[in-house]
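Format notes (please read before filing issues)

Several people have asked whether sequences and structure tokens are stored in separate files. They are not. Every record keeps both together, in the order shown below: the sequence lines, then the token lines. Line labels are part of the format and must not be stripped during preprocessing.
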Amino acid sequence: RLPHPTQRESMLRSCAARTARRSCGAAVGQRRMMSSGTVTVQLDKPYETFKLESEPPMTAEVTRDELLGYYSLMYRMRRMEISADTLYKAKHVKGFCHLYDGQEAICVGMEAGATWGDSVITSYRDHAWQLSRGDTVTGVLCELLGKQGGCAKGKGGSMHMYKADANFYGGNGIVGSQAPLGAGIAFAHKFAGDGCCSFALYGDGAANQGQLFEALNMAALLQLPLVYVCENNQYGMGTSKKRSSANDDYYTRGGYVPGIKCDGMNVLSVRECTKFLKKHAVEVGPIVVEFDTYRYHGHSMSDPGITYRNRDEVSQVRAARDPVDRAKRYCIDTELVTEAEIKEIDKEIKAEVVAAVEAAKSAPMPDPSELWTDIHVGQTKDFFMRGPDITTSSGVYGTVV
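Then the structure lines:
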């Protein structure tokens, strides 16, 4: 059963309210705006369109509660990923680890423009999406550390976050594999007639995958409510887009499917674009969007990220386009939130993430019996699975269900 569309909005509101209640207390005597007050923000980077006769607005109406929610969630994601970096370097994280810092505006902006009734499926850079769909920092870190309390009981790790009750279908480790799956999820939405759509996210490194174009062709034929989301962070592993793609205007790569390019470092631009994308997908059919973004870390934690680009490039992007800093500036420049409130929010989130790290580190490992569970749907305790040798097998020999 699909979650009620207001669940996601409730999470953002409660996030804002939790931080605002405490931070307002620290700002007594300073000017405050009513939470219902709305301001209009002029967006600074125009959209680029392909085969479209209209585009999203270049303005965004936003309230104090919304800005607090966006900033709080983005800052929480940033601190969580910084902690994941530290935990990996301390050898607490087993397996791969792909961080999302620098790209937070895409996740939060899309969530603000969609609902939890809409489905999301993404690549292995998935920690922030797990958090945005209702998990906790502790839950995400438990999964990273292979501990009980993670969404996959500690058996999936970094690349396999999943939250079906909020229509988040992972976390997929094979490059581009989420593209056809996303089309299938879009087919399910159309079959159900629920007015929702499927967002299938992939990076510029996966943009040349054949399966992506095969699935897009089927989606166009069936007019499925599908949004292909290219998170163009400029590098596929260690290869720049100019060296890997004959056409790096990824929003035009659908050919017979319309597309749009949006500033992926601006949470409000992403929000307005997402509203436009969903409307088109549900009413017309598939559409491709390219979110222009940047990752601060290397492709994964095994990639230092400075052999194919230099530190100055990363520093320049941080200084000019950082998405968390831009959200903070929106809060302050609109005069809906004070600097004192922001400082209090930052302090609380830092403390929350520190506590989550300790909770994840102290959480128990999965019981060894969990090695034999979740292999097949509906398997019984007698279902036979062979171990490294017959004496370490599980179940009753000959049992197949």
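For reference, the curators noted about this record: The beta strands are 38-42, 48-50, 59-63, 119-121, 198-203, 226-232, 235-236, 239-240, 259-263, 287-292. The mean pLDDT is 90.
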